[in-house]
Each structure stands twice: as C-alpha cells, then as structure tokens.
Amino acid sequence: QVQLVESGGGLVQAGGSLRLSCAASGRIYTYTRMGWFRQAPGKEREVITARAWSEISTDYSNPMKGRFTMSRDTAKNTVYLRMSSLKPEDTAIYYCAADVDSDYSWDYWGQGTQVTVSS
After folding, report:
1. Residue 103 and residue 93: Cα distance in Å, rounded?
2. In what helix (H) or strand (E) does residue 13 lie, and over which residues does it extend?
3. In this predicted structure, what is the pLDDT of residue 63?
C-alpha cells in the first residue's frame, strides 16, 4: 500500500514559478516509477514526466533545467515538480502517481492539487 499526498498548488501570475510536493509513504522501491500528471478543465489527464525513483534527480535546487523538472528528496520520501515560466494554459489539477512494480500501470494516485495561472 502506498499513499501519496500532494501539496504546493495555488494561484500564481503568468511567468511565475511553483514547486509541487508529493510525499510518499509505503512501499517505494528504487525501480518504482513516479509520475506527475495534470488535467485541465474539459481535457483528458496528460502525463508531464515519469521516471524510476532511482533515476529522479536529487538536485532539487536546480530551477533552470526545463520548464517542468522532477526531483526527489530521499530522506523525506518526497518527489517535487518544479514549474517555471508558468502560462495560463498550465492551469490544471496536478497529480502525482506511483507505478510500484514498474509494470507501466499507475497503481496509486494522490488527491491532486490545483494550480491556477492568471494572465
């Protein structure tokens, strides 16, 4: 059993940045895939990024590598999604998910966190 709790969403102006957190508890292995998704109003859920736990960067202080960057803090069992240069079209509910056995089936989902980007 895995629980995922997201936080960090909110209202931000276009061009701004946010960092979302996904705290994981339970059985997370080095090969467990973690993913970030989003779903905008009236649209289907889409994947932003997904990687095996061990392959996720631990350099969560690097804000400039891509507009959306996933990183992790092993001690806190937490993955982050840093988002920069945000646009109004990035407005959505953002979810993290875990594919525990890396069989390309997303087993667990967080509750979602709302991100709203104003123009």
Report:
1. 25
2. strand 10-13
3. 46
